[in-house]
Amino acid sequence: MFEEEIGMAWFLLGGHFSNGGPDNVNQALITSADRKILYIKSNNKPVRVLETFWKILISEGVVVSGACAKRYYDFMKVFHKKFVYLMHGCMDFENEINRLHLSSDFIENERNLLRDAKCIVCVSEGYSEWVKSRYPEYAGKITFVNNGVKLEQREKKEKEPFSVAVGGGNRCIKNNNAVSMAVKKMNSEGIPCKLYIFGRKYPGNEEIEETDYIQYCGHMDKTPYYERLDHISCFVMNSEVESFGLVAADALNCNCSLLMSQNVGARSIMKAEDCDIIQRPHDVDEIVEKLKYIFEHPNSNRLYESIDVQACSERSSFQRLDAIVEGAIK
């Protein structure tokens, strides 16, 4: 891991070992790269720290994928390393809405990354517009690369009638509480709707009450997660802001209908219609009406077939990012 030639490749600074959003994106970039790049190989923390410093030093430039530790930012500054910031989320905003209680130093480090990056690459076209509106002073260096998706539609399984799934646990930014209220309302109307909540329970966030028809499933590995999705009728992404949302591809791979808020970045890769979009994420009545329509008119095949598979492939996303990085760090 310390044998690479100096200055021959850019370094992808970010984890790729866990089943989480940025890690999954990084793993896809690594496996789809059609040229040499540097990336972290050790999952041992002390070794990983040394490896990171070394690869920053020998790289031709750095792609900071998500907020990095301050020590790495400081190291890049000392050695005048040019870097691109691959932006999966806005910690300043998420700290506020999700009540994360992050330290001021952590938030300040993200601001430094935004300020000093040669280019800010958002992970969807839609998200890039939101970031430009939040940071107009950086609009001139903000661009996007839609996350690559792996589309492998699975064998169709019998769907549980009126079943709904959401991701992200009880994080406020996901607005899953509004979905739970919609499910409660449908049950009060005699529609036996059931909600499955994937992801963790976060302390300090609004609690979503479990009932006979609202169930927490926790954080799951990919295989059992897909096996559960195979039987879900509709996956709802009701986010306040969603930089991309790889779960959209998961849902469509498992033949789930998809209902998304207008703020979901994954909309950028498909042709969604008004009936697929929640315009007001806090409007329970709108969610109820959209769910009723989707239960009667499933949209999974239509949305799946609307995606340009070649343009949205993981290889295409790497190539677009690579071109941006090469232009920024030269």
UniProtKB/TrEMBL annotation:
Domain of life: Bacteria
Alphabetical list of Pfam families matching this protein: Glycos_transf_1
Keyword Zinc attributed: no
UniProt keyword Transferase, yes or no: yes
Glycosyl transferase family domain residues: 153-301
Protein's GO biological process: lipopolysaccharide biosynthetic process
Molecular-function GO terms, alphabetical: glycosyltransferase activity
Keyword field: Transferase
PANTHER family the record matches: GLYCOSYLTRANSFERASE WBBK-RELATED
The protein, known as: Glycosyl transferase family 1 domain-containing protein
